[in-house]
Amino acid sequence: MSIFEVGGKSAELEKKTLEVLKPRFEKIDETTRKNQRRLLEAYINNKVSAVHLGISTGYGYDDAGRDTIEKVFAEYAGAEDSLFRHNFMSGTHTLAVMLFGVLRPKDKMLILTGRPYDTLIDVLGLDKAVDGSLSDLGVEFEIVELDNNGMPDKKSIEEKLKGGNYRVAYIQRSRGYSLRHSLTAYEVGELCGLVKSVSPDTVTMVDNCYGEFVNDVEPTALGADIMAGSLIKNAGGGIASTGGYIAGKHVLVEKCAARLTAPGVGREIGATLGHNRELYMGLFAAPHTTGEAIKTALYASSFFSSLGYDVTPAPNEERGDIVQVIKLGTPEKLIAFCKGIQSGSPVDSFVSPEPSSMPGYDSEVIMAAGAFTLGSSIELSADAPLREPYAVYMQGGLNFDSAEAGIMLAAKSLEEKNLL
Ligand SMILES: *Cc1c(COP(=O)(O)O)cnc(C)c1O
Q1: Is the CB–ligand 1 distance for residue 209 below 6 Å?
Q2: Which atom of ligand 1 is the closest one to the Cα of 232?
Q3: Segment 125-163, tens digit of pLDDT
Q4: Is the CB of 242 within 6 Å of ligand 1?
Q5: Distance, CA 17 to ligand 1 centroid (Å)?
Q6: How far is it, in rounded angstroms, from Cα 25 to Cα 112?
Q7: 116 CB less than 6 Å from ligand 1?
Q8: Residue 377 C-alpha to ligand 1 middle, in angstroms?
Q9: Quick check: CB of 90 below 6 Å from ligand 1?
Q10: Per-residue H/E/C for the chain
């Protein structure tokens, strides 16, 4: 018997779900097609060539491969400029470079989308004194909470902006580890428009993690001044083995380059050490890989909502990121789900994940991931903080066929314990 064989109820629902979702998958394919063409055009316009795939060492002066992919990504994103580098060590590091690059002591930042992603709390120094945080350097923060529907509270944002002199308005596009909505690129664009209409000199800054290639446009083409994300999520296409990007207005990107390396040398240095080829290939794969991840999320949403679970986004909801939340309701179900996902991974399928504490997170977390790149969440992965409402956050899937099989193993794992 194949390990993928599931019980009658699951098998029937699998078949039905795949059938029902056909027209929805076609719409996802349409976005992929548009994004892929626009990206290919950027490769062509910038004359990407075999020499760009080579290696630089030492200071990395005149690395044409590095400089050219930054032009390619900026063109795709509708931005003036970008940094697109393996030197960014994680999404949090990339966002920190963007924040420290743009903000100065005594500046005020208004956060438009409620409490930010867990790992940003210490970067900002929001909850407690953290040595070297932005608060430690004298930057001040105010948060506008989301409304009862989990959406940005435009009225309060407008009032705040009228009353204050904010250097930065910060928008987190993805839900992260929370039950809020994710924002489409268009919704982010609208928020940026609102900011500029009240306070034209305020920099609109976007945490675009998990949002790249999900819609047919990026926030920087719709009025965001600067945005950042990780290359072991959407924008690396499952191929980049590390890295991040910052894209936006040239003057702002230059400030970030001075922070990433050192003032004076800025973007001119940074040996690529052989990473160019995988960054070019990864970016090129990103529209397609992201499309596969969205199909995976939609499948899980549809399958588990048919079983009566509360899911967000709901199957018919528009998506702004690749994250799917399934409220499983009990710790036993969370653990069984994550063990099932792990058992269907191409790497480390035999490992059994257990809840544990994680730096940057304030409750125990269980993580299922059997990825080719450590911690990559564009590959099928599921994370769940062990707290109410015992919701699992799953995302990724390098290709739909393998990721769908993984989800069915999660269902099987629940079924075997009579928990489905
Ligand atoms: C993943 C993520 C981050 C942080 O990225 P890491 O690579 O985990 O450091 C920040 N914000 C959001 C919304 C994210 O999804």
Answers
A1: yes
A2: 7
A3: 999 999 999 999 999 999 999 999 999 999 999 999 998
A4: no
A5: 30
A6: 32
A7: no
A8: 10
A9: yes
A10: CCCCCCCHHHHHHHHHHHHHCHHHHHHHHHHHHHHHHHHHHHHHHCCCCHHHHCCCCCCCCCCHHHHHHHHHHHHHHCCCEEEEECCCCCHHHHHHHHHHHHCCCCCEEEECCCCCCCCHHHHHCCCCCCCCCCCCCCCEEEECCCCCCCCCCHHHHHHHHHHCCCCEEEEECCCCCCCCCCCCHHHHHHHHHHHHHHCCCCEEEEECCCCCCCCCCCHHHHCCCEEEEECCCHHHCCCCCCCEEEEECHHHHHHHHHHHCCCCCHHHCCCCCCCHHHHHHHHHHHHHHHHHHHHHHHHHHHHHHHCCCEEECCCCCCCCCCCEEEECCCHHHHHHHHHHHHHCCCCCCCCCCCCECCCCCCCCEEEEECCCCCCCCCCCEEEEECCCCCEEEEECCCCHHHHHHHHHHHHHHHHHCCCC
Q: Could you read off the pLDDT of 311-334 as tens digits, one per residue?
A: 999 999 999 999 999 999 999 999
* Cβ–Cβ under 8 Å, residues 206 and 226: yes
CA distance 212 to 194: 22
Is residue 212 lining ligand 1, measured as CB closer than 6 Å?
no
pLDDT, average across residues 261-288: 98
pTM, rounded to two decimals: 0.97
